[in-house]
Each structure stands twice: as C-alpha cells, then as structure tokens.
Amino acid sequence: MTASLEVSPVPMSTGRLLRAYWTEAKYECIRLLRSPAFAGPFLGLPVALYLLFAVLLYGDALRKDPKGEGALFMFLGFTIFGVLGPGMFGFGISVATEREKGLFALKRALPMPPGASLLAKLAMSMLFVAIIMATMIAALPLGHLKLAAGQLAALSVVCILGSAPFGAMGLFVGTWASAKAAPALVNLLYLPMIYLSGFLIPMPKSMERIERFSPAFHLHQLALWAVGASKAAPNAGWMPWVHVVVLATVTLVFTWLAVRRLARVG
Amino acid sequence: MTTDNNNLAELNGATKRFGTVVALDGLDLEVRQGELLALLGPNGAGKTTAISLMLGLLQPEQGSARLFGQSPLRVEPRRRIGVMMQEVNPAADLRVREQIDLVASYYPDPARTEVVMEMAHITPLARRFYGKLSNGQKRQVQFAMAVCGRPKLLFLDEPTVGMDIQAREMMWATLRRLIDDGASIVLTTHYLEEAEALADRVVVLAKGRVLASGTVPEMRALVVRTRIRCISTLAVEQVRDWPGVGSVTRDGPRLDITATNAEAVVRQLLGCDEDLQELEVRSAGLAEAFTELTQEGTK
Asked: Cβ–Cβ of A110/B83 closer than 8 Å?
C-alpha cells in the first residue's frame, strides 16, 4: 500500500474542534493514571488517612459524639485535603516539565485549539477529585457519619469545581519553576495552606483571622455549606457567594498571570 | 489566504535580539510554493530563530513574519503546517499511536494514523511507549507527528539527527514524495549531503543575515575552487607557491589541493612528478562552498 498525503483543506468543523479538546483531556488523564507513583498517593492518601484517624485512632470517640461534629470535621478535612493535591501538583509539576521538554513550544507551533492543554489539565484534576470523592464517600459509613445523598451530591459538586483555584495556583508555579524545583515550590504553598486554613487541624482562636487569607479555608466553608453545617463553622456569618467570589478571583488572577507568562516564555 | 506572490511563509526585515546578541539582523526570507528550502549555517547563525519567528513562537523586534499571508499567532494558518522541532520530548508515557492521534486531532482533515505510521516506517512501534524508543525512533515518531495533519508546509529542524543511514534514506524518499504531492518544506540540517540531495533552494545564514541563496549548483558555482587529490612526493611548500593554488595539505602519501585554476595546476603536477598516481579532480561540493561562505561571512 502506498501512503500518500494530499494538501489539507483549512476549515475546522465544530465537531473536530470539540474532538481536539476531548482528545487532549483524554490523553492528559491517561498519562497521569499511567504514572502510579504520581497518581497513587493523590488518589489513595486522603481515604487512607481518613480511615486511620476516623476509624482506627479516634473511631470510638467519634461514635460516642452525639452531635457528630467531630466525624463531620474529619470527613470534610480529609476530603478538602484530597481536593488540593491533584490541581496544585498536577498542574505545577506537569506544566514545569512540559515547558522544560519543549512540549509547550511545540503545541504553540502546532494548531492546538486555544487553551486545550490547560483545560485538559483542569479536566484531569477534576477527574482525580471525583475519584477521591468516590473513595471518601465509600469510606463514609466506617467513620460514624451519615450524610444524605443530596448532601453528598452538593459536596461533590463543590469539591470538583472547587479544585479549579488550586489548579490555577499550581499552573502559576509551573510557569515559573523548573521541573526539579516545581515540587518543592508547590509544597511551599501546599503545606502552609493545609495548616493555616484550619480545615484539618483547628487553628487557635487568636489565629483564626489568618484562615480567611487561604483559598482552602473558603473551599472548606463552602463544603460545610454544601452539607448544611455552615452554622457550625467559624465566620459563620459569611454568605456562600463570598467564598465563591474569593475562589473565582483566585482562579482568574493566577490563570491570567500564568497565561501571560506562558505567552511570553512558552 | 496565500499572499499574491505565492510565498507560504516569509520574514520581512526581521530583527531579533537575545540580550546583546543579534540573532537575526533584518532578515528577508521567503518559502515558495512547492519547494524544499534548506536553511544552512553554523551554530548560532539564526536558523532556529528564523523558524521560530515564522511559527509565531518568537516575535520580531523589527520587521514582520507572515504565515500563509497571516500572523503566525493565528491558529488558522497553523492548521496548514506541520512542525518537527529540535529538543522536544513528547510525553514518555503515551504510546506511539496515541502521540499521533493527539496531534492529528488538532487538524481539520488529518491522514489516518495507520497511513502516517506506514509512511514514517513506524508501524511496528505503534504500541510502544514513546519513552522506551531509541533516539532515532523518536525522531521518526516526531516526523509522523509533523506530517499527520497533511500539512501544506512542513518545518523540519534537524530532522535526521540520531537516525541510522537506512532510516535517513527512507525519510529522504518520503520528503521527496511529499514535495511531489504538493507540499513545501523548510529544512535545517547540519548534514550538507542532505541539503545537496533534497533542496531545490539553499539559503546560507550567518550572524542572522543571508550570506547566499540559490540552487545547489548555483551555490557550488559561487565557489570557483576545484579539489585535486593525488599520490605524490612533491613537497607541500613547493606546490603552495604555484599560481592558481589556494591551499595544500598532506594526508599520508596524498596531496590535497584546492585550486582556482585546476588545469594549470594539473599540468604542473604531471610535469614535476613523473611518478604521480591516482589523480582525482572534482568541483567543490556544497560542503566546500558552505565552509568557504560561512568562514568569509563570520569574519
């Protein structure tokens, strides 16, 4: 058989365009799922830690708590912990690596549809968060906590969409850092954010004002609102839309800064 | 839309600096319909920068870059090009077929993946992970990624580096067929025999400027010297002083002479050395022309 290439016509149908976005997202997810050393910890660690603390270590105490506040705190805490990782590390490390390998430059030279690569990474982090949500919901009965299907659905939507600002932060780091430096730099944001947001380890009263500067705090507040427990939260007077605005602003600002830098340096 | 003069890509007075280094110095360059243009030049001559401007990866500080008559920053003209760049490492954990599927998805009417793999001679590698391939195989896959969109214009930056002789010759044959099918190609290469074998037109760059431009015979003709080789006992110093001799070196029993008047030098050689053997006289090739041009251009 003789292979032959004829000159291609130019118009790109909407179907082909959507297929390009879909293909980019599909292979982004496949690539990361094929890297168990990367995907394993993000997918498995939240539920493993939840089972360790909420079942093995503090299971008895949580069972005896009539209000169930401790059980809810742990469940939401490890869920939010799971939401942060795929976006921050997934974007940060993969963008830095792809820049260093010249892939971003190649894709800019090729007719990749605008934003396809970043949207693919966003889809990847949302898929990972969806898997994490599924594992956490599967482990929920062991943690002495009951949530209705509607509460879990609302929480899942909040967490999946709420992974976007953390992806944007990771993207920003990835556009500045080398592949070697990216994990360390992402950790410099990730670890303090976990401790200073109060969602995993309660902050002392005197330091609670610091929490509101952390995007993870606002996601935690939305998660509490999604399961109807926002009155139990610190800063309970804030309306949910305030948190949505904060998270949307973080997403837009970091994405804008990152895209501007990518356009200049590739 | 193509410009009136049918140039598929062009740089007009393009200047680009990196810090204090002038990479391109008011460069005019055009890629014409149906030609294979070889860009030659020593390292740092501006070849990759020129291609990067035509692809929209860099912006000229002065002058302009056009691709199919439009800004190369627009996605529409880029749907008509294929690109194979130096120092690009596609994802190691995607299979060969998947790499091609991914790039093909960017184009309005790509070739079938099987056809592309057959053309690039990588069908047996279809299910292999890209990261597990040899350097030469990786270049073949990158070539398949460059042609999968059935481009009208191909940019190939050092495409055959790392390939064995058989793979290189197969790629040459494929490039000739692409030209026959109506594509145009911009090729940078360090292998002068590659340019000599393939190019319709050669542009030699040095310090970001065009030193010379023309067909391979025209480029050879720019250098009027002839190479003479023979086994002779004559001293290098003696031959060097003869009229019409450019340079003389000894390689074991052989004398290697470049001459501006070959006939006179050959007559004198035969007259002075009755035992002279294995006389070879040939025109300077592209390699000699290139060396001479770039040495003069970078002085």
From this structure: yes
Q: Which residue of A has its CA nearest to B146?
A: A110
Q: What is the mean pLDDT of residues B210-227?
A: 79
Domain B224-283 architecture: 2-Layer Sandwich (3.30)
Reference A131, options A32, A227, A219; nearest CA is A32
Report CB contact under 8 Å: A5, B102: no
Assign 3-state DSSP to chain B and report helix, strand, coil percentages, each to 5: 35, 30, 35
Cβ-Cβ contacts under 8 Å for A159 (sequence gap 6 or more): A79, A80, A83, A129, A132, A133, A219, A223
The candidate with the shortest Cα–Cα distance to B44, out of B84, B78, B16, is B16
Number of domains chain A is built from: 1
Domain at B7-220: CATH architecture: 3-Layer(aba) Sandwich (3.40)
Say yes or no to pLDDT of A143 above 60: yes
Is A216 within the bounds of a domain? yes
Say if A1 falls within a structural domain.
Answer: no
Instruction: Give the one of A1, A5, A34 whose C-beta lies nearest to B181's C-beta.
Output: A5
CB–CB of A136/A50 below 8 Å?
yes
**Contact call for residues B37 and B185 (beta carbons, < 8 A):** yes
Report the gap between the CA of B76 and the closest CA in chain A (Å).
Answer: 7
Interface predicted TM-score (ipTM) of this complex, two decimals: 0.80
**A209: Cβ contacts below 8 Å, ≥ 6 apart:** none
Q: Are A62 and A71 in contact (CB under 8 A)?
A: yes
Domain definitions of chain B by residue range:
7-220, 224-283
* Verdict on whether the full-model pTM lies above 0.95: no
CB contact under 8 A, A7 and B116: no
Consecutive H or E run containing B15: strand B7-18
Structure confidence by residue, pLDDT tens digits, A67-114: 777 888 889 999 999 999 988 998 888 889 988 888 888 998 999 988
